Each structure stands twice: as C-alpha cells, then as structure tokens.
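Quick entry, no commentary yet.
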Amino acid sequence: MAIIIDRPNQGQNREREPRRVVSCADILAFATRDATFFSGIPYYIIPIGRRHGLSSRAVDVSGNLPTPNTSVKERWSKYSQKKNLRTLPWIRRLRLVSIGHVSAAKFRYGGIRRSKVTAKRKNVLYEAIRRMNVAPIGYQDMARDPMTAEIVRRLAFEPRIWKKSFTRAMVRLSRVDVITGNAGEIRKNCRLVN
C-alpha cells in the first residue's frame, strides 16, 4: 500500500505533473473508499483538501483509539468528543464499523477488477457479534449492552441499512481531526515529515 500512496506524490513525470498538490491523507482516503467500493459497498463522495501535521509520532495516537477491551460506555465517551462524530447514531462512531467488511477485491497491475469472490452479505461481522461468535471483548459487549444491542441486531439482519450506515460513517470519519487551509503541510514522502 505504501508504494501506491507514495508514487502519486513523487510523480513519474515530474515536469508534467504538479507536485505536492494532493496529500497522502487524501490519497489514503481515496484508496479506502475505492477498496470498499470494489468489495461491493456503494460508492461515496469524500471531501478533499487534507494536509498533514508537522509531526508524526506513534505516541500521539495512544488514547485516541479504543482497545478491544474498551467498554461500550468508554467508546461512547471517546467518540462523543470528536468533532463530526457527535451527530451520528452511536454505532457509526465506532471505528470497528469497517473491520471485516472488505472482501477479496483483487488488485492487479494496470488496474483493478472485481473479484468473483465478493461476499453476498457485508454485514457478517454484526451477525457474528449478535451470536457472540467474535473474539474481541469489545464486539461482544456491543451485542449485550442495551445501548447498542438493537443496532447490532438491525445491522446484522438488514444489509441495506448496514451499507447506508457504513458509507455515512466513512464520510464522517474522513472529516475527523482534519488539517486544512494553510495549516500543516503536503508531504514529499508520505512516510516522512518534510
């Protein structure tokens, strides 16, 4: 994935292509959207214009994402603090919404083609959660907690609702803690601060 993301910014024909116009963050958002589309999720429009912070440290991530053992109440609290996530129904705030839903989209040189092995149901994770057949404790808590049990049930049995919820959640997540305008930078190399 790093090669796919780094190359557009470095440009094969530097004299013909504008440099540092599209950020690595935007490229990653497009790659995520396209991967989900090729797995059978409806196409969705995402905002562009993201920039990168002037530092990039693993320690800055600690505390921003829940662990598998984070309770439903703690997840609610954590995501309620994030701008652009406050107005979503609670289940869509969970970053785990996307786990397990990208089926085998096959990538090849010269383009992308749909896999013949596309999952018929994209909501199998929620069905597994509902049946308590999922290892991470956090997922099982979602099926048991009165705050989320009904939502898990609906997402497990109504694929159309799951797809609509998923695409809305992805658009909202793409707007969380975004740097735009003149703040930050567009990196020359996606893995390094300029």
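second:
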Amino acid sequence: MPSIRAVALLDHCRKALSQQLYGMNNERSRKGCYGEFSPMLESTAKRDSRISGNENLPERSEELRQQPKSDLVLFVKPSPCNNSEHPLEFTYVFSYFVRPQGKFDPEDYALYVQPVASFNSVEQFWNTYCFLKRPADITEKVDFHMFKEGIKPVWEDDANRKGGKWILRLKKGLSSRIWENLILAMIGEQFLVGEEICGAVCSIRNQEDIVSLWNRTADNLATTNRIRDTLRRVLNLPPNTILEYKRHDDCLKDQSSYRHTNVDLPRR
C-alpha cells in the first residue's frame, strides 16, 4: 500500500492540476491543443507541464513530447523508482481502443488495444497523465484503459474472466472529473480489497460516456459490494445515482459490455 505521504502527494497534485484544468480563468489550459496521431495523447504544442515537480523525470517527458506522427503511439515503459519518488503498490498501464472501420468482431478487441505508457510511482503517474487528453475533450468513439500491468483490458483475460465490472453512465461533459477521481482512487489503494481490482475503462460514446471498474471475482458478493460502496464515496456520487454490474462471463455470452446489466438501485 502506498505510504500516507504518497497518498497525500497524489491528492496535492490532483488539486494543483485540477485548478489548471478546470479553472474558469484558464480556458487555454482547459481546452488544450491536441495532436492528430493518437486519440489519447496531447500534441507537442502543449510542452509545459501542468504541475510542478516533474523535473525528476525529464526523460519520460521528452519521450512523450516527441511522439513520432508517423507512428500511432510509442509505448513508454516505467523507469525504476529513485529515492525521491513515491512508489505505488502496482505498476499500471494506460492504453486505448478505437473501433476499426468496417466489420469488427468483438473477439478481436485485444488486437486493436494500443498501449501508451506504464508507471509505478506517483511522480511517473503525473508526468504521464499531464500529457493525456481528457475524456470530455474526445469527440470520437474511444475506450480509455488503466489496468494493472499484466492484465489485458479484455473479458477473456485470466484475471477478468471470472470477474465483472461496476458501470456508471454519465452525461456528456462529466467524464473527465469522474475518470480522474477513479484512477486516483485506484492507484491510491482506496478500495482496500487487495488484488481484487483489475483496472478501469472510460468509454466515450455519442450520447453518453461510461466509466467502469473491473474486479476479479464476481461471485464474491461482499467484495463487489465493498467496491460499489467505495466507488460511490470516492466519486462523491449523489444518493440517487444508479450503478450497474455485469459479469464478464455474461459479456462473453452476449458479446456486449453495457447491455443486459444488473441495475443496483440506490438505497432509500
């Protein structure tokens, strides 16, 4: 589990970044200037980091700034944590999926997942995250992923096959803040369920955005309910917010992530 100091640093950096991302007087920083070669990465035009303290990781910043436009994406591996960094409990990987044109078989999903970068410290997270687009700024259909290293963001992965996911449907424009709070809660080990959490997905769609949190064991009702309750707390969801759950074996049966879900009605 990350130290109390590391969790405090995560929160401090989140507040500092959010002030720039969502501040009313910083329209240019909030909207950003994005490149064409990847739906997840910001362009080299945004060269200045949104937070202080990234001078500890200049090589990572330079790798992300100089993504070649001829390639879709360059995967950036994590560097070993130095003494000044705050290590995380797990290494995580950012990736994304864009549905190919033409006929598409959901079983081929993994073939089109593009990894972007991995990280294993608080500092590496922020030095990667500040170069990624925010979900609310995306207009095309894209899935963003953040999963533990070694776990693919697909139903049939060994870590996911017997699990499922909590699903939250959002009105357009709300996904950036929810996504940020969710992944911060994950890397800050706020769910307190050991290795049960696999990863998270933010799906950008035409009429709504959908955020989901994946766990290993759908049959463990106590654990899935604890994840649900923590999810409501860390996302500061209104009491009447509806969450849904779907097992991944059901996803494999109907080849769908978000149809035929089990609705978890809010308690009165």
